[in-house]
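S.,

Sequence below, as promised.
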Amino acid sequence: MKPRRAYAIFALVTVIGVALTPLLGQSLFPGFKERDFLIHWVTQPGTSAAEMQRTTLAVSKELREIPGVRNFGAHIGQAFLGEEVAGVNLGENWVSIDPSVDYDSTLDKIEDVNDAYAGLFRETQTYLDERIEEVISGGKEPIVVRVFGQNLSTCCARRLPRSKRSWAASRAFKISTPISRPTSHNFRSR
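The prediction came back faster than expected:
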C-alpha cells in the first residue's frame, strides 16, 4: 500500500470519528413510550420519616390531580430485609398514565410537579430504562470506576488524581461518592 493511500484512509477514518463524536453518550436503546414511570425521590441523609411521608403524600395528591394519571404508588426507605440499602431519605414513586392521553404533555406535567419540590434529587424514568441502567451498567456513565477501601477519602486522595489527569480530555468525567451515613459499632467486652 502506498503511503498516500494510507494517509487518505487515516484521514477519512479521523473525519468520520470526529463527525460521530457528538453522538457519543447517547443511549443505544430506543425510547419506548412506556406508560409506567418510576420517580426516584431522594432527600438529604437525616431527613425524618415524617418529612418523607409528608412530601410523598403531597406529591401523590398533586400527581393524581393531573388528567390522565391512572395510578400512583410509593415506598419510603428500605423494607425489612429489602434489596436496597437505603435510609428513610430514599423513596420511589410509581406513576401510571392512561393510554388514551397524550404521552408527552402528560409526562411534562408530571415533571413540572416534581420540579416544584426543591432540595430533592428526583428523576423520572420509565421502568425499562431504570432496570437497564441498574442491571446492565449499575450507572448511567459510559465508564464507571468503583473505588473500595476502609477510608474512601484516603483512597480517593491517593488514587483518583492520577486517574483524573489521564482522563482529563474526557468531558464526561465525574467523581460521584456515596453520601456517608453515620454508623456506630457496639462492642461488648466479656
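The longest helix spans residues 3-20.

Coffee later?
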